[in-house]
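Quick note —
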Amino acid sequence: MRHSFTSALIFTVTAGAFLVCSQLSIGDVDRFVPVEGGWQIRFSSDPAISRPQYGSAIGVTRPRSQETALETRRLLYPPADRSLIWSAEELEKLELCTFRPFVLAYGRPRFVLEYHSAGGVLGHIYVGLMVEGGKSKWFHQWSEIDMRYVDGRVEYVLRDGDFPGTTVSLGAAALAESVGVILDVSVQTKLKGASVVWGYGGASAFFTPKDIGRFSDAVGPSAAAGGNTAPREWEFSPGDCVKDLMVWKDGALTLHREFDGSDTYMTTSTDWLQAAAKLLPGWKAVICAGSGWNTKSNSGFGEPKAFATTPGEFVRTVQWIEGNEGAEKHNVVSAQQIPVVKGKASGYIVVGMGGNIAEVLRDPSKAWAAAMARNRGI
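Predicted structure written out below.
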């Protein structure tokens, strides 16, 4: 039996939304170009492409097309409303507990969820494409990427020579009434046997008391001036999954994360951070994940080490749920595979905690519209 699940993280993509990105030229590789409401930039792994010399024009930055410490990053901000996570009774014990969650969106599209006083880093999201008997890559491994940040959302258009005749459009925004992110993914391809693969996991509970804004990638030369190297703990590591419990129930996947004294989240102490789990003994983070597509999907649990490689390697380790209601497993990454039918696949991916997450999972398209309305109102 095949399954579809939804979550509080959604990316959305429309044909019109990527019009500006599609007009980027080769000369715009590694160059920030202003657009109404934000900026855009092109990344290319092609060594033959001529790149503008750093400092030769406004917006030209040092090379960013490879995954390095200087990689472009943007923060997306879900509501910092503590009542979305904790009850009124719990909030009485959290009077001095601040809350400023964010989603870290990389220029090469992958995503980190940071819940601040609700758990620190509580997972990573990878999305990719695999072809049966052929190539497979996570989208952050693709060679040609146009990125656009505008009005509080991030948009991408991706192409790669290993997938001829294939274009991927992807959008990401913070949820409006839950603490998480929503993705809208659209794939068009001429390749047979293609499928979209995505996974979520790696709740390490890492937290840094440093100036988070400094890591969010200042646009322009200052981004490469030193001192803003992102913590290595923001990168996925198989060891991040050791304390994760994944549970499949009611057509959705839930990550349960308890905390102890070995977690950075519990040991870091500043005058502006109090870990909620310290003040609420026994409290644990519960994050929902799922998606909705234009076709049936298959869901299961995959191995963390394979998640760090390619979608194809990851899928080979997946234990498919096959209708096993209540299935649960420690130290795994959630997995979903969606076949591309008649050359097209489109859908939403959601990951998040609290608020109206149950409603988001039932109707992610409505949640995307609410996220856009929230961004317009900020």
